[in-house]
Amino acid sequence: MSLTEQQIRTAVLEELGNVAPDAELDGLDPSEDLRDALDIDSMDHLNLMIALHKRLGIEIPERDYPKLLTVDAAVAYLLARAG
Amino acid sequence: MADILMPSLGADMESGRLAEWLIKPGDSVAHGDVIAVVETQKGAIEIEAFDSGRVASLEIAEGEEVPVGTVIARLGAPGEATAAAPASAPSAPPPAAPAPAPSAPAPTPVAAPSPAPAGPRRRVSPAARRLAETLGVDLAGVEGRGPQGAVVSSDVRRAAETTRAAAPAATQQPARRRGLDLEEMRKAIAAAMARSKREIPHYYLATRVDLQAASDWLARRNAERPPEARLLISVLFLKATALALRDHGAFNGTYEEGAFRPGSGVHVGSAVAIRGGGLIAPAIHEVDHLDLDALMAKLRDLVERVRRGGLRSSELTDPTITVSSLGERGVESLFGVIYPPQVALLGFGRVSDQVVALDGAPAVRPTVELSLAADHRVTDGHRGGLFLRRIADLLQEPEQL
Protein backbone atom coordinates (compact mmCIF):
# COMPACT_ATOMS: atom_id res chain seq x y z
CA MET A 1 0.00 0.00 0.00
CA SER A 2 1.45 3.32 -0.85
CA LEU A 3 -0.03 6.30 0.86
CA THR A 4 -0.18 9.77 -0.58
CA GLU A 5 0.81 12.82 1.38
CA GLN A 6 -2.81 13.96 1.35
CA GLN A 7 -4.01 10.67 2.83
CA ILE A 8 -1.45 10.90 5.59
CA ARG A 9 -2.26 14.52 6.34
CA THR A 10 -5.96 13.68 6.54
CA ALA A 11 -5.18 10.80 8.90
CA VAL A 12 -3.04 12.98 11.16
CA LEU A 13 -5.69 15.69 11.41
CA GLU A 14 -8.55 13.27 11.98
CA GLU A 15 -6.74 11.33 14.67
CA LEU A 16 -5.69 14.58 16.29
CA GLY A 17 -9.37 15.52 16.41
CA ASN A 18 -10.19 12.21 18.08
CA VAL A 19 -7.43 12.51 20.64
CA ALA A 20 -8.32 16.08 21.50
CA PRO A 21 -12.06 16.43 20.83
CA ASP A 22 -12.10 19.54 22.98
CA ALA A 23 -9.42 21.35 20.98
CA GLU A 24 -10.10 23.81 18.18
CA LEU A 25 -8.47 22.46 15.03
CA ASP A 26 -9.72 25.14 12.68
CA GLY A 27 -6.91 27.51 11.88
CA LEU A 28 -4.21 25.23 13.30
CA ASP A 29 -0.79 26.19 11.92
CA PRO A 30 0.66 22.89 10.65
CA SER A 31 4.18 24.00 11.50
CA GLU A 32 3.41 24.88 15.10
CA ASP A 33 4.33 22.61 17.98
CA LEU A 34 1.13 20.77 18.91
CA ARG A 35 1.96 21.04 22.58
CA ASP A 36 1.90 24.81 22.31
CA ALA A 37 -0.83 25.15 19.70
CA LEU A 38 -3.34 22.75 21.25
CA ASP A 39 -2.01 22.10 24.73
CA ILE A 40 -1.35 18.50 23.75
CA ASP A 41 0.16 16.73 26.76
CA SER A 42 2.23 13.55 26.83
CA MET A 43 -0.84 11.33 27.21
CA ASP A 44 -2.57 13.01 24.26
CA HIS A 45 0.58 12.68 22.16
CA LEU A 46 1.01 9.02 23.03
CA ASN A 47 -2.64 8.42 22.10
CA LEU A 48 -2.01 10.12 18.77
CA MET A 49 0.98 7.85 18.12
CA ILE A 50 -1.15 4.80 18.97
CA ALA A 51 -3.92 5.89 16.63
CA LEU A 52 -1.56 6.63 13.73
CA HIS A 53 0.26 3.35 14.22
CA LYS A 54 -3.02 1.45 14.09
CA ARG A 55 -4.49 3.37 11.21
CA LEU A 56 -1.47 3.53 8.93
CA GLY A 57 0.41 0.45 10.07
CA ILE A 58 3.62 2.41 10.34
CA GLU A 59 6.08 1.67 13.15
CA ILE A 60 6.84 4.70 15.31
CA PRO A 61 9.54 3.91 17.89
CA GLU A 62 9.33 5.92 21.09
CA ARG A 63 12.66 7.61 20.47
CA ASP A 64 11.17 9.15 17.31
CA TYR A 65 8.23 10.80 19.08
CA PRO A 66 10.02 14.17 19.12
CA LYS A 67 10.01 14.03 15.31
CA LEU A 68 6.22 14.12 15.26
CA LEU A 69 5.49 17.22 17.24
CA THR A 70 3.97 19.31 14.44
CA VAL A 71 1.45 18.30 11.78
CA ASP A 72 3.95 18.99 9.00
CA ALA A 73 6.73 17.07 10.73
CA ALA A 74 4.44 14.12 11.46
CA VAL A 75 3.30 14.00 7.82
CA ALA A 76 6.89 14.12 6.57
CA TYR A 77 8.02 11.41 9.00
CA LEU A 78 5.14 9.09 8.18
CA LEU A 79 5.45 9.69 4.44
CA ALA A 80 9.14 8.77 4.53
CA ARG A 81 8.28 5.54 6.33
CA ALA A 82 5.19 4.65 4.34
CA GLY A 83 7.39 3.42 1.50
CA MET B 1 -36.75 2.89 51.12
CA ALA B 2 -33.69 4.96 50.44
CA ASP B 3 -33.48 8.49 49.20
CA ILE B 4 -31.04 9.49 46.52
CA LEU B 5 -29.72 12.97 47.22
CA MET B 6 -28.05 15.57 45.04
CA PRO B 7 -24.46 14.66 45.96
CA SER B 8 -21.75 17.05 46.98
CA LEU B 9 -18.99 16.57 44.44
CA GLY B 10 -16.43 18.68 46.18
CA ALA B 11 -16.00 20.90 49.18
CA ASP B 12 -17.55 23.88 47.49
CA MET B 13 -20.40 22.56 45.44
CA GLU B 14 -23.67 24.16 46.51
CA SER B 15 -26.08 22.97 43.89
CA GLY B 16 -26.28 20.85 40.77
CA ARG B 17 -28.46 20.83 37.68
CA LEU B 18 -29.87 17.48 36.66
CA ALA B 19 -28.93 17.25 33.00
CA GLU B 20 -30.19 13.77 32.25
CA TRP B 21 -31.88 10.86 34.00
CA LEU B 22 -30.57 7.44 33.05
CA ILE B 23 -33.15 5.60 35.17
CA LYS B 24 -36.92 5.61 35.37
CA PRO B 25 -39.40 4.41 37.97
CA GLY B 26 -39.43 0.63 38.09
CA ASP B 27 -35.77 0.19 37.07
CA SER B 28 -33.47 -1.83 39.28
CA VAL B 29 -30.24 -0.18 40.26
CA ALA B 30 -27.22 -1.58 42.02
CA HIS B 31 -24.50 0.14 43.98
CA GLY B 32 -22.17 1.87 41.54
CA ASP B 33 -24.60 2.06 38.60
CA VAL B 34 -24.62 5.36 36.76
CA ILE B 35 -28.09 6.80 37.28
CA ALA B 36 -27.94 10.41 36.14
CA VAL B 37 -25.79 13.12 34.67
CA VAL B 38 -25.47 16.24 36.77
CA GLU B 39 -24.13 19.52 35.48
CA THR B 40 -21.75 21.03 38.02
CA GLN B 41 -19.08 23.67 38.11
CA LYS B 42 -16.71 20.91 37.11
CA GLY B 43 -18.71 20.00 34.04
CA ALA B 44 -21.11 17.13 33.50
CA ILE B 45 -20.59 14.34 36.02
CA GLU B 46 -22.11 10.87 35.99
CA ILE B 47 -23.79 10.16 39.31
CA GLU B 48 -23.54 6.65 40.72
CA ALA B 49 -26.06 4.93 42.96
CA PHE B 50 -24.99 4.36 46.53
CA ASP B 51 -27.73 1.89 47.48
CA SER B 52 -29.31 -0.91 45.54
CA GLY B 53 -33.02 -1.17 44.94
CA ARG B 54 -35.87 -0.46 42.60
CA VAL B 55 -36.54 3.11 41.54
CA ALA B 56 -39.76 4.23 43.18
CA SER B 57 -39.87 7.77 41.89
CA LEU B 58 -37.87 10.58 40.37
CA GLU B 59 -38.33 13.72 42.40
CA ILE B 60 -36.91 16.33 40.07
CA ALA B 61 -37.09 16.85 36.34
CA GLU B 62 -34.29 17.11 33.83
CA GLY B 63 -33.10 20.67 33.71
CA GLU B 64 -33.92 21.43 37.35
CA GLU B 65 -31.21 22.85 39.58
CA VAL B 66 -31.41 21.94 43.26
CA PRO B 67 -29.20 22.42 46.32
CA VAL B 68 -26.85 19.69 47.48
CA GLY B 69 -28.71 17.28 49.76
CA THR B 70 -32.08 17.61 48.01
CA VAL B 71 -33.89 14.30 47.44
CA ILE B 72 -33.75 13.70 43.69
CA ALA B 73 -35.13 10.17 43.60
CA ARG B 74 -36.44 7.45 45.88
CA LEU B 75 -35.50 3.79 45.93
CA GLY B 76 -37.46 0.84 47.25
CA ALA B 77 -35.80 -2.35 48.45
CA PRO B 78 -34.82 -4.70 45.61
CA GLY B 79 -37.86 -6.96 45.90
CA GLU B 80 -40.21 -4.46 47.43
CA ALA B 81 -43.34 -3.70 45.46
CA THR B 82 -43.10 0.03 45.71
CA ALA B 83 -46.41 1.76 45.89
CA ALA B 84 -45.43 4.52 43.57
CA ALA B 85 -43.56 2.47 41.03
CA PRO B 86 -45.46 1.58 37.91
CA ALA B 87 -43.45 -1.60 37.56
CA SER B 88 -46.30 -3.96 38.36
CA ALA B 89 -48.82 -2.16 36.20
CA PRO B 90 -46.98 -1.32 33.04
CA SER B 91 -50.15 -0.33 31.24
CA ALA B 92 -50.94 2.52 33.60
CA PRO B 93 -49.17 5.79 32.96
CA PRO B 94 -46.58 6.53 35.64
CA PRO B 95 -48.92 7.70 38.36
CA ALA B 96 -46.95 9.13 41.22
CA ALA B 97 -43.75 10.69 40.02
CA PRO B 98 -44.56 14.32 40.58
CA ALA B 99 -42.32 16.35 38.43
CA PRO B 100 -40.49 14.61 35.67
CA ALA B 101 -43.07 13.51 33.15
CA PRO B 102 -43.51 16.54 30.90
CA SER B 103 -39.91 17.66 30.79
CA ALA B 104 -40.46 21.34 31.45
CA PRO B 105 -41.33 23.44 28.43
CA ALA B 106 -40.13 20.79 26.00
CA PRO B 107 -38.88 23.00 23.21
CA THR B 108 -38.63 20.43 20.44
CA PRO B 109 -40.17 17.02 20.08
CA VAL B 110 -36.80 15.28 20.24
CA ALA B 111 -36.26 16.62 23.72
CA ALA B 112 -38.60 14.11 25.33
CA PRO B 113 -36.72 12.22 28.03
CA SER B 114 -37.16 8.96 26.19
CA PRO B 115 -33.65 8.71 24.75
CA ALA B 116 -32.25 6.85 27.72
CA PRO B 117 -32.26 3.64 25.74
CA ALA B 118 -30.65 0.38 26.63
CA GLY B 119 -27.73 1.34 24.39
CA PRO B 120 -24.31 2.46 25.57
CA ARG B 121 -23.93 5.73 27.39
CA ARG B 122 -23.80 8.70 25.14
CA ARG B 123 -20.64 10.72 25.43
CA VAL B 124 -20.66 14.47 25.18
CA SER B 125 -17.38 16.33 25.29
CA PRO B 126 -17.19 19.13 27.86
CA ALA B 127 -16.53 21.62 25.09
CA ALA B 128 -19.64 20.45 23.24
CA ARG B 129 -21.77 20.78 26.36
CA ARG B 130 -20.45 24.27 26.87
CA LEU B 131 -21.10 25.23 23.28
CA ALA B 132 -24.60 23.75 23.38
CA GLU B 133 -25.35 25.84 26.44
CA THR B 134 -24.04 28.95 24.72
CA LEU B 135 -25.90 28.37 21.48
CA GLY B 136 -29.05 27.14 23.18
CA VAL B 137 -28.87 23.76 21.42
CA ASP B 138 -30.69 20.81 22.98
CA LEU B 139 -28.17 17.97 23.15
CA ALA B 140 -30.90 15.33 22.99
CA GLY B 141 -31.42 16.10 19.33
CA VAL B 142 -27.77 16.25 18.32
CA GLU B 143 -26.25 13.41 16.36
CA GLY B 144 -22.79 12.52 17.65
CA ARG B 145 -20.15 12.01 14.97
CA GLY B 146 -17.13 12.04 17.25
CA PRO B 147 -15.22 8.96 18.37
CA GLN B 148 -17.57 6.21 19.54
CA GLY B 149 -20.52 8.38 18.67
CA ALA B 150 -19.52 11.09 21.10
CA VAL B 151 -21.08 14.48 20.57
CA VAL B 152 -18.29 16.97 19.86
CA SER B 153 -18.27 20.69 19.22
CA SER B 154 -18.68 20.41 15.47
CA ASP B 155 -21.85 18.32 15.95
CA VAL B 156 -23.33 21.03 18.13
CA ARG B 157 -22.38 23.71 15.64
CA ARG B 158 -23.96 21.74 12.81
CA ALA B 159 -27.11 21.22 14.85
CA ALA B 160 -27.24 24.92 15.65
CA GLU B 161 -26.97 25.82 11.99
CA THR B 162 -29.69 23.36 11.03
CA THR B 163 -31.99 24.74 13.67
CA ARG B 164 -31.26 28.28 12.70
CA ALA B 165 -31.99 27.50 9.07
CA ALA B 166 -35.28 25.92 10.06
CA ALA B 167 -36.40 28.64 12.42
CA PRO B 168 -34.44 31.77 11.73
CA ALA B 169 -35.93 33.96 14.39
CA ALA B 170 -36.75 31.59 17.18
CA THR B 171 -33.27 30.54 18.18
CA GLN B 172 -31.97 34.03 18.66
CA GLN B 173 -31.77 33.45 22.37
CA PRO B 174 -29.15 35.83 23.59
CA ALA B 175 -25.95 33.87 24.12
CA ARG B 176 -26.72 33.46 27.76
CA ARG B 177 -24.08 32.39 30.22
CA ARG B 178 -21.37 32.32 27.62
CA GLY B 179 -18.37 30.21 28.57
CA LEU B 180 -20.37 28.87 31.48
CA ASP B 181 -18.25 25.91 32.38
CA LEU B 182 -14.86 27.53 32.48
CA GLU B 183 -16.13 30.50 34.39
CA GLU B 184 -17.95 28.26 36.82
CA MET B 185 -14.94 26.02 37.15
CA ARG B 186 -12.79 29.03 37.91
CA LYS B 187 -15.24 29.97 40.65
CA ALA B 188 -15.09 26.46 42.08
CA ILE B 189 -11.30 26.49 42.03
CA ALA B 190 -11.29 29.93 43.62
CA ALA B 191 -13.58 28.83 46.43
CA ALA B 192 -11.71 25.60 47.13
CA MET B 193 -8.27 27.18 47.01
CA ALA B 194 -9.29 30.16 49.12
CA ARG B 195 -10.70 27.80 51.70
CA SER B 196 -7.53 25.73 51.55
CA LYS B 197 -5.28 28.72 52.17
CA ARG B 198 -7.60 30.04 54.88
CA GLU B 199 -7.91 26.80 56.82
CA ILE B 200 -4.94 24.58 56.06
CA PRO B 201 -1.54 25.48 57.50
CA HIS B 202 0.61 24.30 54.61
CA TYR B 203 4.24 23.40 54.80
CA TYR B 204 6.35 22.69 51.75
CA LEU B 205 9.29 20.40 51.06
CA ALA B 206 11.17 19.57 47.89
CA THR B 207 13.89 17.24 46.79
CA ARG B 208 15.59 16.35 43.51
CA VAL B 209 15.15 12.74 42.40
CA ASP B 210 17.58 10.97 40.09
CA LEU B 211 15.64 9.29 37.28
CA GLN B 212 18.43 7.53 35.42
CA ALA B 213 17.28 4.08 36.51
CA ALA B 214 13.61 4.84 35.87
CA SER B 215 14.23 6.43 32.45
CA ASP B 216 16.51 3.61 31.28
CA TRP B 217 14.10 0.95 32.43
CA LEU B 218 11.17 2.70 30.79
CA ALA B 219 13.01 3.20 27.48
CA ARG B 220 14.01 -0.47 27.37
CA ARG B 221 10.53 -1.64 28.22
CA ASN B 222 8.78 0.66 25.77
CA ALA B 223 11.19 -0.16 22.94
CA GLU B 224 9.93 -3.74 22.76
CA ARG B 225 6.29 -2.81 22.90
CA PRO B 226 3.76 -1.41 20.45
CA PRO B 227 2.65 2.15 21.18
CA GLU B 228 -0.56 1.08 22.93
CA ALA B 229 1.42 -0.91 25.50
CA ARG B 230 3.94 1.83 26.29
CA LEU B 231 4.03 3.55 29.64
CA LEU B 232 4.45 7.19 30.57
CA ILE B 233 6.83 8.07 33.36
CA SER B 234 3.98 9.68 35.28
CA VAL B 235 2.63 6.16 35.82
CA LEU B 236 5.83 5.29 37.70
CA PHE B 237 5.36 8.44 39.78
CA LEU B 238 1.79 7.46 40.67
CA LYS B 239 2.73 3.94 41.64
CA ALA B 240 5.75 4.96 43.71
CA THR B 241 3.58 7.49 45.52
CA ALA B 242 0.90 4.90 46.25
CA LEU B 243 3.40 2.35 47.57
CA ALA B 244 5.08 4.96 49.75
CA LEU B 245 1.69 5.88 51.20
CA ARG B 246 1.36 2.37 52.62
CA ASP B 247 4.11 3.27 55.07
CA HIS B 248 3.08 6.91 55.38
CA GLY B 249 -0.65 6.76 55.88
CA ALA B 250 -0.74 10.15 57.59
CA PHE B 251 -0.60 11.77 54.15
CA ASN B 252 -3.43 9.65 52.78
CA GLY B 253 -6.83 10.80 53.98
CA THR B 254 -8.87 13.83 54.91
CA TYR B 255 -9.08 16.35 57.72
CA GLU B 256 -12.67 16.92 58.76
CA GLU B 257 -14.33 18.25 61.89
CA GLY B 258 -11.07 18.76 63.67
CA ALA B 259 -9.58 15.33 63.10
CA PHE B 260 -7.59 13.39 60.55
CA ARG B 261 -9.46 10.52 58.97
CA PRO B 262 -7.27 7.96 57.16
CA GLY B 263 -8.36 7.08 53.64
CA SER B 264 -10.23 3.82 53.09
CA GLY B 265 -7.72 3.00 50.36
CA VAL B 266 -5.07 4.75 48.31
CA HIS B 267 -7.20 6.77 45.89
CA VAL B 268 -4.89 9.12 44.07
CA GLY B 269 -6.39 12.24 42.53
CA SER B 270 -4.50 12.83 39.30
CA ALA B 271 -4.48 16.43 38.19
CA VAL B 272 -5.43 16.85 34.53
CA ALA B 273 -5.28 20.29 32.95
CA ILE B 274 -8.28 21.25 30.88
CA ARG B 275 -7.73 22.96 27.57
CA GLY B 276 -8.89 26.53 27.75
CA GLY B 277 -8.24 26.74 31.47
CA GLY B 278 -9.11 24.95 34.64
CA LEU B 279 -8.02 21.74 36.20
CA ILE B 280 -9.58 18.66 37.66
CA ALA B 281 -8.07 15.87 39.76
CA PRO B 282 -10.33 12.80 39.70
CA ALA B 283 -9.34 9.71 41.65
CA ILE B 284 -7.83 6.52 40.42
CA HIS B 285 -8.91 4.00 43.03
CA GLU B 286 -6.62 1.56 44.88
CA VAL B 287 -3.51 2.65 42.99
CA ASP B 288 -1.23 0.62 45.26
CA HIS B 289 -2.93 -2.58 44.07
CA LEU B 290 -2.66 -1.88 40.33
CA ASP B 291 0.24 -3.07 38.21
CA LEU B 292 1.80 -0.52 35.88
CA ASP B 293 -0.13 -1.63 32.79
CA ALA B 294 -3.44 -1.47 34.61
CA LEU B 295 -2.54 1.90 36.06
CA MET B 296 -1.61 3.22 32.63
CA ALA B 297 -4.95 2.03 31.27
CA LYS B 298 -6.78 3.75 34.11
CA LEU B 299 -4.90 6.98 33.60
CA ARG B 300 -5.54 6.90 29.87
CA ASP B 301 -9.23 6.30 30.47
CA LEU B 302 -9.38 9.11 33.00
CA VAL B 303 -7.73 11.63 30.71
CA GLU B 304 -10.04 10.59 27.91
CA ARG B 305 -13.12 11.13 30.07
CA VAL B 306 -11.86 14.50 31.25
CA ARG B 307 -11.58 15.49 27.58
CA ARG B 308 -14.74 13.83 26.33
CA GLY B 309 -17.05 13.82 29.32
CA GLY B 310 -18.14 10.97 31.54
CA LEU B 311 -16.42 11.52 34.90
CA ARG B 312 -18.17 9.74 37.74
CA SER B 313 -19.21 11.10 41.09
CA SER B 314 -17.02 8.71 43.09
CA GLU B 315 -13.98 9.89 41.17
CA LEU B 316 -14.55 13.42 42.37
CA THR B 317 -15.39 12.62 45.98
CA ASP B 318 -12.94 9.82 46.75
CA PRO B 319 -9.40 11.17 46.31
CA THR B 320 -7.31 10.74 49.44
CA ILE B 321 -4.31 12.66 48.08
CA THR B 322 -3.53 14.57 44.88
CA VAL B 323 -0.60 14.13 42.51
CA SER B 324 0.23 16.79 39.96
CA SER B 325 2.76 15.71 37.39
CA LEU B 326 4.04 17.96 34.61
CA GLY B 327 5.64 15.24 32.46
CA GLU B 328 7.97 16.56 29.80
CA ARG B 329 6.78 20.12 29.68
CA GLY B 330 6.54 23.15 31.86
CA VAL B 331 8.59 24.28 34.80
CA GLU B 332 11.04 22.36 36.93
CA SER B 333 9.13 22.51 40.16
CA LEU B 334 5.66 23.18 41.43
CA PHE B 335 4.28 23.69 44.90
CA GLY B 336 0.63 22.79 45.19
CA VAL B 337 -2.29 24.09 47.17
CA ILE B 338 -3.96 21.21 49.00
CA TYR B 339 -7.48 20.36 47.84
CA PRO B 340 -9.62 20.28 50.96
CA PRO B 341 -10.38 18.14 52.85
CA GLN B 342 -7.27 16.25 51.67
CA VAL B 343 -4.07 16.72 53.63
CA ALA B 344 -1.31 16.49 51.03
CA LEU B 345 -0.42 17.23 47.44
CA LEU B 346 2.64 15.93 45.61
CA GLY B 347 4.13 17.83 42.71
CA PHE B 348 6.37 16.26 40.11
CA GLY B 349 7.99 18.93 37.95
CA ARG B 350 9.23 18.53 34.41
CA VAL B 351 11.68 15.70 33.85
CA SER B 352 14.91 17.36 32.72
CA ASP B 353 18.61 16.67 32.38
CA GLN B 354 20.65 18.27 35.15
CA VAL B 355 24.30 18.35 36.08
CA VAL B 356 24.63 16.56 39.38
CA ALA B 357 27.53 15.45 41.54
CA LEU B 358 28.00 11.71 41.21
CA ASP B 359 30.84 9.97 43.04
CA GLY B 360 32.66 13.24 43.35
CA ALA B 361 32.40 14.21 39.68
CA PRO B 362 29.83 16.13 37.66
CA ALA B 363 27.43 14.01 35.63
CA VAL B 364 24.38 14.74 33.50
CA ARG B 365 21.34 12.79 34.65
CA PRO B 366 17.59 12.95 34.04
CA THR B 367 16.00 14.25 37.22
CA VAL B 368 12.72 15.46 38.57
CA GLU B 369 12.00 17.94 41.32
CA LEU B 370 9.54 16.32 43.73
CA SER B 371 7.62 18.55 46.12
CA LEU B 372 5.18 18.01 48.94
CA ALA B 373 2.58 20.43 50.23
CA ALA B 374 1.14 19.01 53.43
CA ASP B 375 -1.21 19.94 56.25
CA HIS B 376 0.70 20.85 59.40
CA ARG B 377 -2.28 19.93 61.56
CA VAL B 378 -1.67 16.29 60.62
CA THR B 379 2.04 15.90 59.92
CA ASP B 380 5.28 17.79 60.25
CA GLY B 381 8.28 18.35 58.03
CA HIS B 382 10.31 15.50 59.41
CA ARG B 383 7.68 12.98 58.45
CA GLY B 384 7.18 14.70 55.13
CA GLY B 385 10.87 14.34 54.42
CA LEU B 386 10.77 10.61 55.11
CA PHE B 387 7.76 10.26 52.81
CA LEU B 388 9.55 12.02 49.94
CA ARG B 389 12.69 9.97 50.54
CA ARG B 390 10.64 6.78 50.31
CA ILE B 391 9.16 7.81 46.96
CA ALA B 392 12.62 8.69 45.65
CA ASP B 393 13.96 5.31 46.78
CA LEU B 394 11.13 3.41 45.13
CA LEU B 395 11.86 5.18 41.86
CA GLN B 396 15.41 3.79 41.95
CA GLU B 397 14.04 0.28 41.46
CA PRO B 398 11.41 0.71 38.75
CA GLU B 399 11.21 -3.01 38.04
CA GLN B 400 9.81 -3.46 41.56
CA LEU B 401 6.93 -1.05 41.04
Automatic annotation (TrEMBL), chain A:
GO process annotations (BP): lipid A biosynthetic process
MF terms per GO, please? Answer: acyl binding; acyl carrier activity
Which InterPro entries does the record cross-reference, listed alphabetically?
Answer: ACP (IPR003231), ACP-like_sf (IPR036736), PP-bd_ACP (IPR009081)
Q: What is this protein called?
A: Acyl carrier protein
What are the record's GO terms for cellular component?
cytosol; membrane
Ordered alphabetically, the record's keywords are: Phosphopantetheine, Phosphoprotein
Q: Which SUPFAM superfamilies match?
A: ACP-like
Keyword Metal-binding in annotation: no
Start and end residues of each Carrier domain: 1-82
Q: Which organism is it from?
A: Tistlia consotensis USBA 355
TrEMBL record, chain B:
> Known EC number(s)?
2.3.1.-
GO MF term set: acyltransferase activity
Task: Name all Lipoyl-binding domain ranges.
Answer: 1-76
One GO term of the biological process aspect: pyruvate decarboxylation to acetyl-CoA
Q: Which residues cross the membrane?
A: none
Query: Tell me, what's a Pfam family for it?
Result: Biotin_lipoyl
Listed A to Z, the keywords are: Acyltransferase, Lipoyl, Pyruvate, Transferase
Q: What CDD domains has UniProt attached to this entry?
A: lipoyl_domain
What PROSITE patterns does the database record attribute to this sequence? BIOTINYL_LIPOYL, LIPOYL, PSBD
Pinpoint the Peripheral subunit-binding (PSBD) domain residues.
Answer: 123-160
Q: Where is this region: Disordered?
A: 83-126
What top-level branch of life does the organism fall under?
Bacteria
Family designation? Belongs to the 2-oxoacid dehydrogenase family.
Name the chain's protein.
Dihydrolipoamide acetyltransferase component of pyruvate dehydrogenase complex
